[in-house]
Amino acid sequence: MASLEETPLASRHRELGARMVDFAGWSMPVQYRGVLAEHAAVRESCGIFDVGHMGTVFVSGAGATAFLQGTLTNDIDKAPAGRAQYTMLCNEAGGVVDDLIVSHLDDDEWMVVPNASNVAAVVSVLRERAAAWTGATVDVDDVSGSWAILAVQGPRHAEVLAAALGDTSVGRFAVKRFDAGGHTGILSGTGYTGSPGVEIVAPHATIVWAWDAMSPVLAGVGGMPAGLGCRDTLRLEMGYPLHGQDISPTISPLEAGLGWVVKTAKGDFPGRDVLVRQEHDGTERTLVGLVGTDRRPLRGHCAVLDSDGSTIGEVTSGNFSPGLGRGIGLALVETGTTPAAVDLRGRIQAVEPAQPPFVQI
Amino acid sequence: MDLPEDLHYTQEHEWCRIEVDSKVRVGITDYAQDALGDVVYVQLPEVGDVLRAGGTFGEVESTKSVSDLWAPISGTVAEVNPLLQDAPELVNSAPYGDGWMVVIEAADPSEVANLLDAAGYRAYLDAQSE
After folding, report:
1. What is the number of domains present in chain A?
2. Does residue A243 lie in a domain region?
3. Long-range contact list for A182-187, CB < 8 A, 24+ apart?
4. Are B63 and A233 in contact (CB < 8 Å)?
């Protein structure tokens, strides 16, 4: 087996006794103290996540904005300098290569953050399209090997962040560069938890410095380091899709209810023809939210049944919601059907359809 | 790792406490609860259900996985832990106490001889981790 990649915080995780798992070829902390304690810390105080396995790619040059407008699904003109935007890179079949946050740093400079397992695919598409691009200059610079990301999430994140960055802050989906005594990087008002928070995107040395500067304050506000385990329960409570499960190269954003990030009127981009057709005709499958009747976690790949017991689809993500005290899930089902139950390894568990978010923050 | 000396153990990471009148209290070990992570749901049998040694009698679910519960001895379910429906976290906080799963009325108390003692279970765990 090839050895796993490590983020610059690997030694910190070992010192904290984190349980490490292989995630997309990276050794990552799945939990420190426990998934439920970390989930609660993010909802009630603050959690810091090492998400250094995600990619960092700069797209710059006089043609960068037009290039991204013609490559991604959302309308990038709605993101002036200083704003971040949720968007998709689709394939020609309308499936999702990756869902992305793009941040508009300066007039001709953008930052693209792909999921860990999709960095190579996204960079490859961007480079191929940049090479064929006939407009003004576009430069694609993948710095994923030397940059990392910290997510500081929860209602008390500002106090924790201040320990590293002083009074520097950003609003939701705002983005700015910071320079804290020579430690430079990018601060973004984004996250994947549903709780208020920020993400620090920076070179390795700045990430380690920021972790060390924030850690003592984190404990002081009742927060704690948070692992990928609670990142999944937090995002699922919000109904945020996970690429590879709820969206994928064979699941379109319209099937997943993400039509709000697909702007077909803006002009051409990969997958547009299929997505225009889906907008007009509808989709055969629809991603829906499910809530169980008790605590039993819903699980991915379990069959979804209608009230007649016929299979109408499959759970794409499932778990236990600490906020609801019930099992929850996302499921891809035939459009127009109504889920009534899921088959959990032979046990028929009643469920009700629900529009995410499953909890109110 | 807490492994009380007065209990019997299985390779499926369950413990048994011999009580009065052929009754055997069963739960999962400290090792098992730690490996599972936060337990959020426990599926238990009904009182009166007949269990066969080595057969499954329920499931323990954490935020990350599901594990079957395996009957350490044959017999009839005499009690199920009523606390676990609403407080499955007791399996993590008190695996040998309030986190117990069932009490089995043993059909053949001599089956207890097939179980491991604490030293035997510890040796088994050590062998697994090598």
Report:
1. 3
2. no
3. A183/A209, A183/A210, A185/A210, A186/A103, A186/A105, A186/A111
4. yes
